[in-house]
Every structure is written in C-alpha cells, then in structure tokens.
Amino acid sequence: MTDKHELFSRWMEHNLTETEQQQFEQLIEQDREFAQRVELAGQLQQQATDYHLGPVPKWQPPIMQRQPSGMTRWWGWSPLSFATSMLAIVMVLFQVELRWHEQGVTLSFAGQGTEQEIATQVAARLASFEEQQQVQLAQYRQDLQQQQQQSNMQLANYLLSSSRTERREDFAELIKFVNEQRSDDQLYFARQLNEFQQQVYENTLPANIDPDRLMMNQE
Amino acid sequence: MFSTTDASLISKALDGNNKAWLKLIKRYEKNVYHYGLRMTGSADDAMDLMQEVFISVFRNLSGFRGDGSFKSWLFRIAHFRCVEFYRRKRSHQSLDEGEEIVDHAACASQPVFDQAQSRDLIAAMQALPLEQKAVVELKFFGQFTFEEIADQLGVSVNTIKSRLYSALGKMKTHLEDIHD
Fold first, then answer.
1. Cα–Cα dist B28/B7, whole Å
2. Across the interface, do B161 and A9 touch by the CB < 8 Å criterion?
3. Contact between B47 and A51 using a beta-carbon 8 Å cutoff
4. Phi-psi bin for A95: left (phi > 0), alpha (psi -120 to 50), beta?
5. Angle B155-A51-B160 (CA atoms, 0-180°, nearest 5)?
6. CA–CA distances in Å: residue B113 to residues B46, B50, B107, B119, B123
7. Cβ-based neighbours of B48, under 8 Å, separated by 6 or more
8. Per-residue pLDDT tens for B21-47?
C-alpha cells in the first residue's frame, strides 16, 4: 500500500488531516492519473448521492412464522414431543412389536414375537408336510401292491400256457416217433414175411419148377 | 437509532410477527434491488437476486447475532448471493480476473439510468471484475466504510483499498474509450 493509495483512501473516508490535505492537493496537481481517479471518485459520489431509488416491482416476500432460537435448550422442548421422542427411542431399543390379530393385539419385546411366530409357522409346515408324505406313501404302497399282483398273474399265465404248448409238442413228437417206429416195423415185418414166403415156396415146389418163373406168372 | 429499530423488528419477526418482518423488508428492499440492478445490469436478474437475498435472510434471521449492523449483515448475504449468481451465470469465467460481459442495452433500458453520465458510469462499472465492482458498489452506493466492506467481503482493509483504486483506474480507461 503506497502513500498515494493511503491518501486516497483517507480522502474517501474524509479522514485527512491538514498536512495530509496539503499533500493530497499537491499530488492532484502533480499526478494526472491520481487526479483523474479523484475526479472519477467525486463523480461517483455525486452519482450515488443523486441516485434515485426507483420503485421495486411487486413481489411476494416470504411469510414469517415463529422461528426457533438457536439458543433453545433441550429442556425447553415441548413435553409432548419429548415424551413421544423418548417412547420412540425406547421402542427402538427394546424392539417393541405390536401385532394386530383377529383375536386381538400382541405386544412383544426383543423380537420374541417374531421368533414365536416363526416357530409356529415351521411346526405347521412340518405337520402339513408329514401328513402329505404319509398319504403319498400309502398310495405308493397300494400302487406297488397292485402292480405286483398283476405281474404275478401275468407270470402264472405265461408259465401255464408255455407248459401246455411244450407238452403238446412233446406228445406230437412222441406220436410221430411211434408212428415212424410202427411204419419201420411194418416194413421190417413185410420183408420178413416175403423172405418166409420165398423160403416156403422154395421148399414146397418140385425141383424142375423154377420159383422165379412161378413168381412172375403169379404176378 | 436505526440499528435499535432493526433489532426490535428482527426480534418481533423471530417471534412470528409477520408485520415486523414485512416492515424490515420494506426498509431495505429498494437498497437491495438497486444493488442487484447495478451489480447485474438487468432488472430481471436484480429481482431474482433480491428475492434470493431475502429468502436467505428469512432462513438465517435467527442466526443474526446483532454484532454489527443489520444492513451490513444483509449486504454480506447480498454479496454471497451475487457471487453465486455470477457463478451460475458464467461458471467458466474467473470471478477475480477477466472482464465481465456487460449488457449495455439492459443497463440503458433502466429508468434509473436515464442521464447519459449516469449511464456511462454504470456501464463502466459493469465492465469491472465482480470483486472490484462489489467494492465500488458498497463504497459509493452502499456508503460503507472500508472496514465494513472488508468485513462483508471477508478480506483485509488494504485489499479493499487496492481494489477500489484499481477499479477507478479501469473505469477511467473505460470511460475514455466510451467518449472516444
């Protein structure tokens, strides 16, 4: 901060002493730039003095209501708000729960109500699950039994029918064998008879008769 | 005398007396509006600024301790709101450096700037950076002392004096350009 600035500032505040006033006037004569600043400051001061504060356009200022003082003490609070605040704090700290049922209202602390409700619900679900399982098991057993019976029946029928067929085939085979045997026996016996017949003719005919020719004549 | 009355009005307003509050507003609304008019150069912006200032006062009135004058406290709020206004308007431009964009047409359109000399001075003022413009405004139109301005703007007294001296130099150059 130069003396020039300080002088100018003191002049602005109307605080110049006589000596400073002389220095100030001397500076105005010597320093053109300083003089111009002083002149401009004078114009601005005059302008500010003559400045006409015109009317302010219409506007809606905010409506003032009672504002709480920054020095308000905690015991100056409304008793009702204090009581409700304390109640809210207690309810949060002790986990108070209020439940409305068809039978009435349940008040529980520290989440006990929730645990009881969970236990009840789990027990109900388990009972329902057990009952459902028993019904399904009984039905499954019945189905299995029926299926077993059907299988046994089918197996018996199959065995009976297959044994009959086998026996029929065996008998047919036996009869066929017997018939073949008889046919062979008949052939055998026919041949034996022919041989006997041949021998008988040979033994009974005279010696000059040829048996083969006789046979051919007979035929 | 005024400060006592202001204090009384503030006390009543804080007790919910809307009449006292409106009286307080009425007392200072012209000063704040014309402060905005000279700082922004636009009637619409000045109106917006004034409303923002009084809303801030409304919200923070309970925090007014009465250490200084209410007027000084009010214009400190006005300055903060004005700085925010310029930040919103020209966020890319530095507040301390760089020339403000002047709406000469807006300045000239105001009925309060009807005289040519007045118009030129206001236009030259608009060309100043915000911090220098604020010092010129508070010193000449607000009639505050350097100490009060320093307290309002939160800087030293010497800084305020330097800003004023520099501002007058810039305004002089600007006025010479206009007249040339």
1. 14
2. yes
3. no
4. left
5. 15
6. 14, 19, 7, 5, 10
7. B36, B85
8. 889 999 999 989 988 888 887 888 889
Distance, CA of A211 to CA of A217 (rounded, Å): 10
Pair B53, B74: CB distance under 8 Å: yes
> In Å, how far are A54, B40, B66, B67 from B43, measured between CA atoms?
11, 8, 31, 32
Q: Is the pLDDT of residue A67 over 80?
A: no
Count A/B contacts: CB-CB distance under 8 Å. 99
Residue B137 is inside which H or E element, if any? none
Q: What is the pLDDT of residues B94-106, one digit of tens each?
A: 555 444 444 444 4
**Interchain contact, A57 vs B146, CB within 8 Å:** no
Q: From B163, which residue of chain A is nearest by alpha-carbon distance?
A: A5
Q: How many CA atoms lie within 13 A of B16 on its CB side?
A: 4
Chain B contact for A61 (CB, 8 A cutoff):
yes
* pLDDT, tens only, A32-52: 888 888 888 888 888 788 777
**The pair of three-digit structure tokens given for residue A23, joined into one six-digit string:** 């220095």
Domains belonging to chain B, first-starting first, are 2-179 (1.10.1740.10)
In the block, which residue shows the tokens 């809307």?
A: B18
CA distance A147 to A135: 18
Please state the φ and ψ torsions of residue B45, each to the nearest 5 degrees.
-65, -40
Judge residue B163's burial from the number of C-beta atoms within 10 Å of its C-beta, 0-12 exposed, 13-18 middle, 19 or more buried: buried
